[in-house]
Amino acid sequence: MNSPQRYLAAFQGLALLLAASQSVAQEPAASENAADNAIVVTAQRSGAPMWTIDTPSGTIILVGEIRAIPKTTPWEPARLEEATRQADRVILGARPRISPGDVLRLLFSGSKFTKLPDKTVASEYLTADQWARLSALGAVHEEDYARQSFLLTSFQMLRKELRFNRDTADEPSEVVSKAADKANVPTTRAATLRGEDIIDSLADAPPAAHIPCLNAAMDAVEAGPAIVEQRAADWRRYDIPSVMANPLESALGQCWPWADETLGSELRTIWVDKIAEVSTAKGTTLAVVPLRVLAESGGVLDQLDARGFDIAGPEWK
User: Fold this and answer.
1) Structural domain contains residue 16
2) How far apart are CA 63 and CA 85, in angstroms?
């Protein structure tokens, strides 16, 4: 292993802040409403699925992002750039803070992340059916998965056999980040995660913890490369349940870090807290959020809906 990015690329109580009633003095001015609506319309013309939340003082736009959008997907990043330039603030996903010590730790502990522990082999952890399935895929693709960590095997299968991260277009977070930077729109991250915590989360997980990820990755590989284009097409058609059910999206959601009980839960809570925080801010907030975090059962949209936020946008369940 020569770079921690290989393993980190896969990254990121709520108080009800809306009063039951608002006086006339608290209502946003008509011109402010019009400006917020114009930004929403512009953002929607990009073709990316999004949800809006109207607050007493402004609007929150939640853009549902999927990673690795094929270049063949007909969406309009320029419209999202235009909306970003008009926004009052931008929120992007959690970012790991990697120290030199974290890098050294990864470099000197490489085998701990790439190999199964204590010279064990995959068949010792898997059922007979799971091992037969993994062996068959290894034979077809001329790979030996016997000693590799299940997480590395999963990512390798998705990357090499599905090639889902090849010939991709800019992702919404990249588009928004660049546009906000050029237009000097204030940008914050949902959180900054310590590299030490991320590495510990990965290092402490036993091999069995990654078996659901491996099973989902095998499902995706067996479904074939067509699921890559289908996932993006469903995203563009706002068919959120179909995106969530896509074997590729399912595999990405069942793998680290999202499947980690502590880290994944923290990433979801961060978003709910951040959205609640900006619900009192004046003007338009544009946030780019991983679609799986938004639309999964019990995810951010479900939590916000349960707490009384008025959410407009595509059906997500």
Assistant:
1) no
2) 15
